[in-house]
């Protein structure tokens, strides 16, 4: 077993103590609010992370690709929600999973797609459980709770013999909030919209057993979740600088970082050059439009101490430029000599993790274990 | 063999006819300018692409990670420049490659790093060929041609018994140009700076056989390359929207695209939702600061016809939002019905390719072949 100081750079580190604290905090909150929790595993795409979430009490998982569904089903996880609108050409892949015993739920938000699902299922003598996607904040997909299309889609599915399993929504615009008041308001908007949609379906005779809502900010901000049966959230497991700016975690909660080495300097500019470029950090600039812009990441020492004001100000593919936000640090080459190892906290844990074939899971004693993650479709 | 219409989405397509035209154009230009050409394979990380570059006349390759060096050396390519400042802790990996017969060249731009290289080599009874990185445009790493450090580094290397193989520079600021005049000027600045650095080394008694310069924009814009021995460039093999805005390719030269499927709409907003989000496109927003902003990509039909004005205006992990730049297209759901397959041209081919485990190489007859690419460090 390696220690952090023996790892190659760049590497993606996961602080296991922080990760477990994040998992426990979310699960305890869901338990207190009286709802099931279905973590979104697109953040990690990593079995040990997902197992830790299930061990803490999560029921089922949410995925963003059918490849995630296939990988995690192979690993013994059966209750899976595929939370991206179903592409007709992928229905065969969904059916194959179902036929192998996966309790796969798919989603739709249009009559046209519901018809495609029905047609495919009828032709293949299959039944899909379909949840209807609700738009509660105008940010992406879904049917608004009061739209006629809601009932039209439900009837289209029912007429084709599909199971209308429930409604689901994701208030992604919660990422744009940064006050407790705004967060509570968007969480209530998400809850109320989903519950209203479910009520309309029930009034029309549909059982609509599931009312599924969630995003990390709303899950951590909802005052109550009356009428909701389950919550989904993903990035909370690692947190990141975007979530720190939203206000749902502190810098000390961020469990993912990129280990890097100083490889050069431009002293008059106050730059240190590190071997973590955008390939290691991702191109995500999520904090650019937030209250504190961290460039491409916050610089910490190798053991994780935040170096106030030092960020990755820009990056090329395998070069990161480390600088101080207040202007050139003329002492940069003495502060961070060549060979210095640093950790960089990322803007967006989902995007940064995706750049790495594996995580290095860091235990409290400093030992590490390689945790593979997958990618692709 | 699949045709494009049978491929899953999202997929990364490479138009082989365009790729070969891009390769031939660059090699013909290098031949006419009388220099060797050493393509940067960080763009593709794919053996068949690299083999096509070598078959056209390239001599050796440039890599951005030692993993690329290991992969391509395993595939029989021996003449390799690792064009990122050497991290001391990676010297063992470089030595192992050399001991297996790889003609690996490493680079440095500081006395401190040169000392580390010398110390390691002495301790392991090894000799590295080291090129000195020159800063010709103030954008990232390197020693300026007139700095004292240039000779200090060369002497440090020589005193430790290393081979001072030459100088190399990369005028990355050429990406910020968008007129032929500015491009010719930055190409000349890159050439003159590298040649001047080599001259200073020769005046001090170093042979300095190699003078290596390059970036795609400068390689395609230099009026002459007197004193230069080799050129490096990477993204020209695929080109992309950033290079189209720089002015060194047309839209019809772009060989890389992402195949995607329409999965939903928000009609009143004029949105189509597609299954290519930032996971498939990358988060690169390189055209944001250029003369034409393509959002996250330019929309084309499945067979590659550019759909003027339609771009990916934003994206989440597995959702892309397709919209018209002039405002909501109320006809969007009829223009691009659910199930419609489209190609999206990327901002930055290096970043977009990196998101995909393989390319689908598309032949002129429409047949495709899976070309694996690797990632990680």
Walk me through the structure.
Two copies of one chain form a homodimer. Chain A is elongated, with a radius of gyration of 22 Å. Chain A is an alpha/beta fold. The longest helix of chain A is centred in the middle third of the chain and has 24 residues, at 180-203. In chain A, helix 5 (111-123) runs parallel beside helix 6 (149-159). Helix content of chain A is 31%, strand content 23%. In chain A, the strands form two sheets. The first copy, chain A, has an eight-stranded parallel beta sheet. Chain A has a six-stranded antiparallel barrel with strand order 10-11-14-13-12-15. The first copy, chain A, is built from twelve helices and 17 strands. Chains A and B meet through helix 5, strand 10 and helix 10 of A and helix 5, strand 10 and helix 10 of B.
Indicate the overall shape of chain A.
elongated
Task: Count every helix of chain A, treating DSSP H or I runs of 4 or more residues as helices.
Answer: 12
- Helical/strand content category of chain A: alpha/beta
Distance between the termini of chain A: 32 Å
Q: Radius of gyration of chain A from the CA trace?
A: 22 Å
Average pLDDT over all residues of chain A: 98
What percent of the residues of chain A sit in helical stretches (DSSP H or I)? 25-40%
- Domain count of chain A, please report it: 2
* Tally of strands of chain A: 17
């Amino acid at each position: 077993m390696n220690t952090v100081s023996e790892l190659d750079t760049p590497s993606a580190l996961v602080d296991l103590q922080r990760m477990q604290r994040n998992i426990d905090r979310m699960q305890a909150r869901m338990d207190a609010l009286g709802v099931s929790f279905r973590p979104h595993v697109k953040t990690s795409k990593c079995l040990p992370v997902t197992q830790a979430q299930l061990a803490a009490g999560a029921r089922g998982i949410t995925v963003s690709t059918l490849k995630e569904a296939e990988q995690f089903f192979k690993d013994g996880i059966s209750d899976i929600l595929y939370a991206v609108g179903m592409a007709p050409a992928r229905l065969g892949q969904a059916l194959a999973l179902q036929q192998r015993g996966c309790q796969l739920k798919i989603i739709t938000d249009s009559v046209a797609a519901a018809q495609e699902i029905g047609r495919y299922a009828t032709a293949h003598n299959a039944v899909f459980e379909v949840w209807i996607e609700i738009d509660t904040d105008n940010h992406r997909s879904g049917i608004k709770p009061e739209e006629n299309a809601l009932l039209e889609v439900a009837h289209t599915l029912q007429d084709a013999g599909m199971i209308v399993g429930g409604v689901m929504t994701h208030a992604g615009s919660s990422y744009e909030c940064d006050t407790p008041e705004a967060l509570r308001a968007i969480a209530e908007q998400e809850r109320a919209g989903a519950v209203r949609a479910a009520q309309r379906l029930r009034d029309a005779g549909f059982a609509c057993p599931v009312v599924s809502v969630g995003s990390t900010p709303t899950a951590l901000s909802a005052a109550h979740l009356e009428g909701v049966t389950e919550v989904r959230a993903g990035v909370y497991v690692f947190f990141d600088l975007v979530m720190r700016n939203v206000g749902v975690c502190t810098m000390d909660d961020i469990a993912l970082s990129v280990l890097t080495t100083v490889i050069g300097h431009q002293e008059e500019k106050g730059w240190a050059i590190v071997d973590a470029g955008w390939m290691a950090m991702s191109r995500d600039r999520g904090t650019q439009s937030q209250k504190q812009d961290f460039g491409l990441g916050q610089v910490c020492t190798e053991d994780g101490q935040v170096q106030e004001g030092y960020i990755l100000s820009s990056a090329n593919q395998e070069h990161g430029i480390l600088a101080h936000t207040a202007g050139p640090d003329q002492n940069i080459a003495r502060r961070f000599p060549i060979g210095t190892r640093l950790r960089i906290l990322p803007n967006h844990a989902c995007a940064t993790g995706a750049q790495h074939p594996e995580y290095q899971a860091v235990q409290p004693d400093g030992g590490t274990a390689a945790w593979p993650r997958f990618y692709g479709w």
